[in-house]
Write a structure and sequence with these properties.
Blueprint: H1 20-42, H2 52-57, H3 64-85, H4 97-107, H5 110-123, E1 128-135, E2 138-145, E3 156-162, H6 169-172, H7 176-183, H8 189-198
Antiparallel strand pairs: 1-2, 1-3
Helix pairs in contact: 1-3, 4-5
């Protein structure tokens, strides 16, 4: 059985950048909803005890009757775990160490990386995610539709931003750009650096 992880901060902990009401609905309704549907799909199957990463990495091996639900709901579960745990009320301005060097090597600098990430997140059509991923010896920025996971394509996710409207609409309405810009105030770069070193 997959379960909803607790947040490491309170629902109002990311104010004023993400409001308490959005966080509570996002976590207890949307994220929990994906988990409920995933568990229902896997119940009574040979895959009910598979770890989330194993399900997503082996997506193409799954039978059609569970594949779509695992892509949508398993992906939604995994993507939200990374998203919620990648934010913090005590964010620092930018990463350091090996991750910062990788950003410089692949984008020319930290500000150039931010600009590329904002471009990808802002131009994504419809619902989906913007990502920073480990790819080979470097890092890349790209987006996915729905709840598709980079894990399925062999990438190691480092940082993501939810650009589904439910993630920002109560506070920002149609101002996705403002939501994206404010995201930098709450990124947990220590956590992202840990993911980079582990990948």
């Amino acid at each position: 059985m997959h379960k909803l992880p607790e947040l490491s901060y309170s629902y109002d902990g990311l104010e004023p950048f993400i409001d308490e009401k959005t966080m509570k609905i996002h976590h207890t309704k949307h994220h929990q909803g994906y988990i409920n549907k995933l568990n229902k799909t896997l119940q009574g199957t040979a895959f009910k005890d598979w770890e989330l990463n194993k399900l997503l990495k082996g997506l193409e091996e799954l039978p059609d009757k569970v594949k779509t639900s695992v892509r949508n709901n398993g992906g939604g579960h995994a993507n939200h775990i990374l998203f919620f745990s990648g934010m913090s009320p005590s964010s620092k301005d930018k990463p350091g160490g090996e991750l910062l060097e990788a950003l410089k090597d692949n984008f020319g600098g930290f500000e150039e990386f931010k600009a590329e990430f904002e471009k990808v997140a802002g131009s994504h059509f419809g619902s989906g995610w913007a990502w920073l991923v480990k790819a080979g010896n470097g890092v890349e920025v790209y987006s996915t539709r729905g709840h598709d996971s980079p894990v399925t394509n062999g990438y190691e996710p480092l940082l993501n931003l939810d650009v589904w409207e439910h993630a920002y609409y109560l506070k920002y309405q149609n101002r996705r750009g403002d939501y994206i810009e404010n995201f930098w105030n709450i990124v947990d770069w220590d956590k992202v650096e840990q993911r980079f070193k582990k990948a």
